[in-house]
Design brief:
single chain; 136 residues; Rossmann fold; 6 helices; globular
Length: 136
Amino acid sequence: MANILVVANRTAESEELRQALTERAAKGDSPKFTLVVPSAHGLAKAANPDQDAPEAQSHVDNAVAKFREAGLEIEGRLGDPDPVAAVQDAHNMGSYDEVIVSTLPTHLSKWLRVDLPRKAEAATGLPVTHIVGSES
């Protein structure tokens, strides 16, 4: 069974991400997905009270429900508000075989401006697939 880390925020519930995960699952090896949505929570929320953790938790809950309805084995959780740190934390706490990063299109994506797909690959040493999704 492959363990796949999925990092998304505003695209967590997107049809493009659901399709990519479904296609990945169809390749076999019964993958298990872990969705991490970077968000300010805990001490990070106290330091940045304007960031909205309930919105991020809603993305997690809705995406997990949608993907389970599609027959995917997935769990979800909030991560560090810095997406690179969220990837590193998840990688350090779990054992993954690959990473999927879902971003908004280039002209809208803050994550692409910081080159998250490449940084996720460098931080984990794992193959990274980049999915461009639409905002849910």
